[in-house]
Amino acid sequence: MSLRYSLYSQKKGDQNMRDYLRELKLIKDNLGICGEKISDAEHIATILNGLPSEFDSMVTLITTSRQAYDVLDLSSMLIDLEARQKLGAMVGLFSVNLVTSQSTSHGV
Fold it and tell me: Of the candidates 75, 26, 69, which has an alpha carbon nearest to the alpha carbon of residue 47?
């Protein structure tokens, strides 16, 4: 019972997406060893439920889509999205630093 609770209470938090997904799979696999099978739909629901708000657009896409996603497809999409978000944050930080350094060098 505590493994199932652990599965449903997992949150991504500050860990990277690969670690988050690996942790959920480990719990799912351990439940399977104990005789409690978790369907792909239930696994996907637990993944989506533990995501922070910056993944809301992906959650909406998956939950409203008529296309059926499997765990591997969803995992790849989430890992790619996280990488894009990090890249976007780095580009934004670079832009702020560039503007700040240009303003400073021009005496503004």
Answer: 75
Domain count, the chain: 1
pLDDT digits (tens, 9 = 90+) for 58-75: 999 999 999 989 999 999
Q: 85: domain range?
A: 2-105
**pLDDT at residue 56 in the model:** 95
Examine the pLDDT at 14 and tell me if it is beyond 50.
yes
Closest alpha carbon to 18 in 88, 82, 86: 82
HEC string for the chain: CHHHHHHHHCCCCCCCHHHHHHHHHHHHHHHHHCCCCCCHHHHHHHHHHCCCHHHHHHHHHHHHCCCCCCHHHHHHHHHHHHHHHHHHHHHHHHHHHHHHHHHHHCCC
pLDDT above 70 covers a percentage of the chain that reads 81
Among 48, 52, 1, smallest CA distance to 27 is for 1
